[in-house]
Amino acid sequence: MATTATNRTLAFLTSSPSLSFIRSLSATPLLRSNVKISDEAIFTSEHVEMRGALNKLIEKEINPYVDEWEAARSFPVHSVIKKLGEGGFLGPTRDPEYGGLGLDYSYSIAIAEELGSITCGGVPMAIGVHSDMATPALARFGSDELKKEFLAPSIAGDVVACLGVSEVGSGSDVASIKTTALPKKGSDDLVINGGKMWTTTGTKADWMCLLANTREGDPHRNKSLICLPMNTPGVSVAKEIKKIGNYSSDTAQIYFDNVVVPRKNIIGEEGQGFTYQMLQFQEERMWAVASILLPMERIMQATVEYCRERKAFGKSILDNQVVHYRLAELETELESIRSFLYRLVGLYVAGHDVTKLASMAKLKAGRLTREITDSCLQYWGGMGYTDEVPVSRAWRDTRLLSIGAGADEVMLSIICKLSGTLPK
Amino acid sequence: MASLRALVGCKRVIDYAVKIRVKPDNMGVVTEGIKHSMNPFDEIALEEAVRMKEKKIVSEIVAVSCGPPECQETLRTALAMGADRAIHVEIKGEEYQGLQPLAVSKMLAKLIQNEKVDIAFFGKQAIDDDSNQTGQMVASLLDWPQATFASKIETEGSDTLKVMREIDGGLEHIKVKLPAVVTADLRLNEPRYATLPNIMKAKKKPFSKMSSEELGVDIKPRLQVKSVVDPPVREAGSTVENVDELITKLKDVGVV
Ligand SMILES: Cc1cc2nc3c(=O)[nH]c(=O)nc-3n(C[C@H](O)[C@H](O)[C@H](O)COP(=O)(O)OP(=O)(O)OC[C@H]3O[C@@H](n4cnc5c(N)ncnc54)[C@H](O)[C@@H]3O)c2cc1C
Q1: Domain B4-231 maps to which CATH number in 2.40.50.140, 3.40.50.620, 3.30.70.270, 1.20.140.10?
Q2: pLDDT tens for residues A213-231?
Q3: How far is the CA of A76 from the centre of ligand 1 (A)?
Q4: Shortest distance, CA B33 to any CA of chain A (angstroms)
Q5: A162-272 CATH, one of 3.40.30.80, 2.40.110.10, 3.10.310.10, 3.40.50.300
Q6: Confidence at residue A335, expressed as pLDDT on a 0 to 100 scale
Q7: Average confidence (pLDDT) over A239-254
Q8: pTM of the complete model
Q9: Residues A316-342: tens digit of each pLDDT
Q10: Are the beta carbons of A49 and B37 separated by less than 8 Å?
Q11: Residue ranges of the domains in chain A?
């Protein structure tokens, strides 16, 4: 009996690909490696050079530790952000006065795309929240004083930012948030009460770009974005939320109990917070689309190679037409998203409002990543259902894209609104 | 000592992380559509030059690359890392296929003379063909002293370098009088990343292009490549049930 069991175990092991083989997959060149990035309409040789430099930083300072961080459910966000800040990767579009380089948004997108070479979803998400989701409104509408205090050190990588929009009772319906920041009588301060939910990096960040109601009235005109130092008395982390993916990144629920901040911490005009946040979402959505391109290419490439090696019924899995046709279909879809994104960024750089197109691209990208990771995982068979292979991590991590930064249905409702097809 | 002029050789090679594939005609390896980057040892050499410039020992750094138009990318990296100027000696197609260390060395030696260089930095070898010849050949063409496999470089007075070299079984300390050729070993330093601000500044740095004819160098190959083949693949092993079977197997192949 014992011998039979051992034999079967051995048979299983030898018929399964070795782990070292699977690990070697991630180092193989990408499907698209023969397209020169600088030949893409929105990129130049500086973009190429920048991506090369960022890639080096990622391969040396981030990727070797990702498995460890995923297992620990935490990564050293301050030191990673500092390294990126030193490289100048956290604020290429920002005003040089605050440490930026005054470049156009295509540089941010090139960075977002390259961050996709990080081998998990949590680390790039935390970086993106810091650089492209918590700061655009501050950079565009904030006072000089606020920008010196919060924007400049964020671009340098000396402090880490988080974004507090969603709450326990309001996610998709941003206008319905309950947190208040009301004037304190007889002073120039605001008193904040309420709480935030799903705050990425909430347990570690130094400051939050907070959306709160600063007065009564029309929910689209009663809110403000406020720079809130996280060490202010009354701010507490209620809990760290356990998630099905993006393990390295912490996600927190935060409470505010009579938190006092100066009124001057309001970004731009009081009452404009909802509008600013909606504008800020454009960049967040383009960033999100860019961030999935490389992970999806990598997963498809790994799947091609795995299926080429793996044999069943006397031929490789890849030799089944249903498999290689499906992969070709998905690759085609991914390239169309890339083209869509590049066009959209081109328009944004030229000064257009791209709310509708950005919502469309985000919708498509969310749906496509679900299809790609699900199809790929399927072709890995039992191995796809293990923790040992990159495809299962991608499947878990990228599921978020259809939920975060506005769910698919919210994207649809924005598109409908802008197309004038919503019921009156 | 701040007047030393440095030249650094920056070869474009297949990226170290890429799996090399031999071409079907067995005459070389596949390079099209493959990620390339600066030879890692050249990066180390450049980093050393930049550090010497930061210490005000070196006044100007010229980065040179001989090869196809894509070498301009490599040179741009060099400028972003801290080189002051770049020279691209363009060699394309067939000529580049047959380009060998002696021809490259002649071009470099010529440039070194033209540019009145005091220290010529190279990587100890390029990770593509692993020739480990260029630095040495340049030194002999110029009749300069050479300090190869440098893992530490210090200056002594205004015209001497103290170089620590990694050799079999230990370290060797030598002194070379300038002008000299130095080739960088792995442990000399850890090269910096190019930062985005420096990448943007590099755009404005002088960049010149020339041909091997302009340098008056004959780059025809002196060696002929007969064939390029993959290293033998390690054969799969087999699992044995017990020690007796292992011994039988070992006896079968005649090793016990
Ligand atoms: C890992 C993670 C990180 C996050 N990080 C942040 C952060 O840093 N900062 C922050 O502010 N938020 C963050 N979020 C919150 C995220 O933006 C919200 O989860 C998202 O907006 C959806 O809100 P909700 O979860 O409240 O879902 P709900 O609003 O409860 O919606 C639930 C579902 O209902 C459906 N639905 C909603 N509206 C409509 C509609 N109009 N028509 C049809 N169907 C609809 C959708 O399918 C939606 O998924 C994060 C979330 C996660 C999971």
Answers
A1: 3.40.50.620
A2: 999 999 999 999 999 999 9
A3: 26
A4: 4
A5: 2.40.110.10
A6: 96
A7: 96
A8: 0.87
A9: 999 999 999 999 999 999 999 999 999
A10: no
A11: 37-160, 162-272, 276-419
